[in-house]
Write a structure and sequence with these properties.
four-stranded antiparallel beta sheet, alpha+beta
């Protein structure tokens, strides 16, 4: 046993998902167990990670066309953790309570386009970041526009309701030309 986790000794179990092969054997609450991997505090400070963004050559660089992406699984942490009524539980988090949003990214590409898996990993890098909605949307726009240098780009963060208020943040860069 390693840190309260039992490893199955059956050789045929190698094909089983991680959660099945490594299952808790302790009666301690999960939050107090030693997990196989926990990011170092310095790792969390380096979030988000624009270095994860990759690009590829635009197959039609002379044509004005739009690429629209919907990313419904964006999460980050509220930077004001401790204000909410469940503040004692929130002290276990690096920031505050989680915020959820759908990010809508639309752009007219220049010479390169963003690779989708790298975009997904980049957006996931916000998960442990305590960041305001406005800063998150503008940071995504800054990082993406630096990577792909679009003719025009818009990022819309459609955040779930928090405290009875729904927020939709829109940021753009460049001049939107009519797409033919």
């Amino acid at each position: 046993m390693l840190g309260g986790w039992g490893v199955t000794a059956r050789p045929w179990a190698a094909w089983l998902p991680w959660a099945v092969r490594f299952r808790p054997t302790s009666t301690q609450p999960l939050s107090t167990r030693a997990l196989p991997y926990r990011p170092a505090p310095g790792d969390l400070a380096s979030m988000p990670r624009p270095d994860l963004l990759e690009t590829f050559q635009n197959p039609y660089p002379g044509r004005g066309y739009e690429i629209a992406m919907e990313c419904p699984e964006f999460t980050s942490l509220c930077p004001m953790g401790g204000i909410e009524s469940d503040a004692a539980e929130l002290k276990q988090l690096e920031g505050g309570a989680p915020d959820f949003a759908t990010m809508h990214i639309t752009y007219v590409p220049g010479e390169v386009c963003v690779e989708l898996k790298s975009l997904k990993l980049y957006l996931w890098s916000f998960r442990n970041d305590g960041i305001f909605y406005e800063r998150a949307v503008n940071r995504i726009l800054d990082d993406l526009s630096a990577a792909v240098k679009p003719v025009w780009m818009e990022v819309v963060g459609d955040f779930n309701i928090r405290g009875g208020i729904k927020s939709v943040i829109t940021a753009t860069v460049g001049a939107r030309a009519p797409v033919h």
